[in-house]
Design brief:
- This protein is mainly alpha-helical and 549 residues long.
- The chain folds into two domains: 140 residues, Alpha-Beta Plaits (2-Layer Sandwich); 284 residues, Formate dehydrogenase/DMSO reductase fold (Up-down Bundle), CATH 1.20.1630.10.
- Helix content is 54%, strand content 3%.
- The protein has 18 helices and six strands.
- Strands 1-2 form a two-stranded antiparallel ribbon.
- α11 packs across α13 and α13 packs antiparallel against α14.
- The longest helix is centred in the last third of the chain and has 33 residues.
- 49% of the residues are buried.
């Protein structure tokens, strides 16, 4: 079987005269016309220069790492220790300093065979097209120019002449800028946030009503025909035809297989932030509804949770930065196309409302002041808590957008599901912690049943809606088992324990499941990125021919 697999790869690259051949590629930054790293950068440190290159401003970058998972070519990374200026993003600069001085990039200058050529794009494309025709006349039928003009990257400023398919060179066949799908991800996040607010409101308005059923409408990816499905089962073709940000992902790695995208550089602080930030955001929602319906004790406890989360969340984010001292650079610009930038501002405004709101609420509750000032304080407290509730809804759901708008296939393919999952898990976590703290009221019980029920449905959906090799990290690896354990804890197990009136156990189960599932999704991103998504494959007819030679 291994011999046949090797013959297939040779057949896909060779011309029938040479059974083996090395292929080479300069793995430099492509300086895309629409660059995923530039769109995703929340600090504005990645810019487009006057010569058309994409440049990282080292003195501005704080090392958040979001550009690393947003590049469909995997050519940007975080500078490791003990290199100078460690922690910041780095990549090919297109020799910007040389070009400013009228010189050509160093790689083109020193290349002895002129395999690397620098010049005007139109002239180079014309020259490359002529070269492709010459190669095809010489028997290299698969020769092609790699310059993805028809995809969302809209062409690259460093293109390549290939003797075979892009997969053999570690290049995605159809590179995409992940942020082009932000609309669907944000739509899911906003809908989940609004639905969570309405659910809390209804739970307090009708405290004795049973939890209402919730329908989830999701768009299923198109399945290919039966023949391609059979080929997938045998490991011959790559995936089920799903075009992900980094290109089609095969089921099995080939001889030339190598990772295309870089794995996330985030550590344990990020999944913990997802958990803490989401819980605090939804706690603020419960607090404002509790105030409206005269549930002062619940509202005060919920605001304590919101304020504590508002303090812990930025600490966790700063700890994860490659350059923590530059954390304020996250707020130097606002980029609506960068979920990291939007999330930083959401957290900033949420904290600015939650902490003062708690102080004002406590001063009013303890009647620190009297007369008109106390009434004024009550109004201020309500407005601040209302503001924290508004931004808290999006704090709980934007994290799903943050993962979905990357080039990591396991995240990208579930960009609509992740905001729902994180939002519902955050609401259920806030309810569970309030119940553990002694607030056993009917509205919270109803919300507990509702969130556990929805998570059960999401778990079932995740088990059914599989995307082939791109989802292997979610189903077959250790990360998949961690996600599955988390989903069971916060879904069916929490629901069963709640029905059995074992409220403390149900609450603990939900909280553990919410935290474990966050770690599972973060781990899945690393596993998925490290797999080999660029294995060379053949159409079945050519594969048969290769096997006979």
């Amino acid at each position: 079987q291994d011999q046949q697999k090797g013959q297939q790869i040779v057949g896909s690259l060779g011309d029938g005269r040479d059974p083996f051949r090395w292929v080479f590629l300069s793995d430099v930054c492509k300086h895309c016309e629409e660059a995923g790293c530039l769109e995703a950068c929340p600090t504005g440190s990645i810019v487009r220069t006057e010569v058309g290159s994409v440049l990282v401003q080292d003195d501005v970058c704080n090392g958040c790492g979001y550009c690393v998972v947003s590049c469909p070519f995997g050519v940007i990374d975080r500078r490791p220790e003990p290199l100078p200026d460690a922690g910041g993003a780095f990549k090919c600069t297109f020799c910007y300093d040389r070009q400013k001085s009228g010189l050509v990039p160093a790689c083109a200058k020193v290349c002895p065979t002129e395999s690397i050529v620098f010049g005007r794009l139109d002239d180079l494309r014309a020259r490359a097209s002529q070269r492709v025709q010459q190669l095809k006349q010489n028997g290299y039928d698969d020769a092609q120019l790699y310059d993805p003009l028809e995809t969302s990257v809209r062409g690259i400023h460093a293109f390549f002449l290939l003797l075979g398919g892009p997969e053999a060179y570690g290049l995605p066949p159809k590179p995409q800028v992940p942020t082009i799908y932000l609309k669907s991800a944000w739509s899911s996040a906003i809908a989940t946030a609004v639905a969570a607010f309405i659910a809390v409101l209804c739970a307090f308005v009708w405290p004795r009503s049973a939890p209402s059923a919730t329908k989830m409408c999701m768009t299923d990816e198109q399945r290919l025909d039966q023949l391609r499905e059979q080929a997938w089962d045998k490991g011959v073709v790559d995936g089920r035809g799903v075009d992900v940000a980094g290109g089609p992902i095969p089921r099995k790695a080939g001889y030339y297989g190598k990772p295309v995208v870089k794995p996330p550089v985030w550590t344990w602080e990020i999944p913990v932030y997802f958990f803490v930030g989401g819980l605090s955001g939804m706690s603020a929602v419960i607090a404002v509804i509790g105030l409206i319906f005269q549930q002062g004790d619940v509202a005060r406890t919920a605001m304590w949770l919101a304020a504590i989360g508002a303090i812990l969340s930025p600490i966790l984010l700063i700890m994860d930065l490659g350059r923590p001292s530059l954390f304020l650079n996250m707020l130097r610009v606002f980029k609506y196309q960068s979920p990291m930038s939007v999330g930083a501002w959401i957290l900033f405004v949420f904290g600015g409302c939650a902490a003062p709101g708690l102080v004002a609420l406590e001063l009013h509750a303890h009647q620190t002041f009297a007369g008109g000032f106390d009434q004024f304080l009550q109004v201020i407290a309500f407005l601040l808590i209302l503001g924290s509730a508004f931004w808290g809804m999006f704090l709980a759901t934007y994290t799903g957008v943050l993962l979905g708008a990357t080039a990591i296939p396991a995240w990208f393919l579930h960009r609509a599901l992740l905001p729902i999952h994180f939002g519902v898990a955050s609401l259920g976590s806030a309810v569970a912690l309030l119940e553990l703290l002694g607030h056993r009221i009917v509205p919270l019980a109803a919300l507990g049943f509702l969130t556990a029920g929805i998570q059960t449905l999401l778990w079932i959906w995740l088990e059914i809606d599989k995307h082939g090799a791109a989802d292997r990290a979610l189903h077959e690896k250790g990360s998949g088992w961690l996600i599955r354990a988390g989903e069971i804890l916060l879904g069916p197990l929490a629901l069963i324990l709640g029905v059995a009136n074992l409220v403390p156990l149900a609450a603990i189960s939900f909280l553990l499941g919410a935290l474990i599932s966050r770690f599972g999704w973060a781990w899945a991103g690393k596993v998925c990125a490290r797999e080999a998504p660029s294995a060379t494959t053949l159409p079945r007819s050519r594969a048969r021919y290769a096997n006979k030679r």
